[in-house]
Amino acid sequence: MKKTISTDMTPANIAKVIEVLTETPQKLEALSKSLTAEGSRQPLGEGERSFTQDLAHLINGEARSSEMIYQALLTNEPVFADIHPERDWGKLLRFDLLDFQDLLVYFKIRRKVLLRVLSSLKDEGWSRYVREEGKQRKESVYWRARTIAMHELDHLGDLESKLGKK
Prior knowledge:
This protein is mainly alpha-helical.
């Protein structure tokens, strides 16, 4: 069964988002315990990413969404450049070339910062908006944080099923 978090911005849903964002680093670390450094670079299945590549993918997506969140909190309805997290951001920064443990440390630091910011927000902050270049739709801070959480839930479920078979 796929876990979901409602698009409705309620205190309970905000708490769920914070909970997922808080738990993800520990879950990633626990899942990585069964892998060697070399094993973290091996594809998790035919045509699949390695654990290192999957973590780099999560970092790329989180980085773009977090940037949107921070800009929405700092300026009034900013327009965010249409830069794809994987095809553009990932190709430039190449987190996938770093060692898994270094990536995990980096992910944990980024997450502490994001959680510190999100945990300080009142409803007004969660309701602030950002818009991507070329799109009319505005997305709230809640929507972007929920997007990160939902993306991570999907990947954690996938990693748990693949690493559970090893």
